[in-house]
Amino acid sequence: MKKYFAVAKTLFKAQLVYRFDVAMTALEIAGRVLFAWLLWGAAFAGRETIGSFALPDMMLYYVISAFLASLDMSGSVSREVSDRIRGGTFSKFMVIPANAQWHFYAQTMGASAYYAIFGTAVTLLCAVLFRIKPLFTANPAAILCAVILIPLGLTFMVCYHYFIGILAFKFQDIGFFLHVQSALLEFVTGGVVPLILLPGRVTDALRFLPFTHTVYTPSMLLMGKIGAAEGVFAICVLAVWTLAMAAANHFVYRRLRIKYDGVGI
User: Quick check: 65 and 36 in contact, CB under 8 A?
Assistant: First the structure.
């Protein structure tokens, strides 16, 4: 574990160099909240609620979900892994005394911890500027479920993106797939609209997918829109998917690595 902690610590410090990326992440959070204020401000004109949301609830949802989405740095894993495989520099991860999947996990957690500091500051600033009241649930069980779901969701997303990255062992170019799946993920995680506004059959189906529980479910738990029972269900679903994805990564890596002809191999 010490070597993975060292990787996370190194990546945390390395983010000090990428000030432009930090600024863009901060602007992304502010942009999401501004988008919600403009869109839903017009949608709520002449009405008090949409679904189970009043306008203050909707704005709070976007503040929380924007912050949680900013923590997810896993998208860089699929790009880095695929680029290294195609460029022939993935070799070092095959010879160092560490599991490649958990190396990238530690790397991502280190970066996410750094961005969380600035994300918190921007989130609080947005709450002040847009006069959003932090009306969180008083249910400690729901809060605990949300706290568990956040790192568990990040773990799953790293495993998922690592899987996408190692497909480059088999396929020469996965760039188009990366582009398409990023848009789909934005929707199914609840980043576009709260999923509760979708038809009932759609939301029932999405409950069994892991992506829903990375942003949408923790946000709804913290707001008190869903109970702890749904939080426990989400933890179970996400845990099963995470274990399955980690096992799939191990199997696929062992099968496809023999096709690799990178530098030093």
Answer: no
CA 113/CA 59 separation, integer angstroms = 25
The residue whose two tokens read 């179970």 is 236
**With contact defined as beta carbons under 8 Å apart, do 40 and 122 qualify?**
no
Secondary structure (3-state) at 49: strand
**How many residues belong to the chain?**
265
Top pLDDT among 237 and 167 is at 237
- Which pTM does this prediction carry? 0.87
Buried b (16+ CB within 10 A) or exposed e, 98-119: ebbbbbbbbbbbbbbbbbbebb
Using CA atoms, how far apart are residues 259 and 218, in angstroms rounded to an integer? 40
**Confidence at 15, pLDDT banded by 50, 70, 90:** low
- Which of 69, 86, 3, 81 has its CA nearest to residue 30? 69
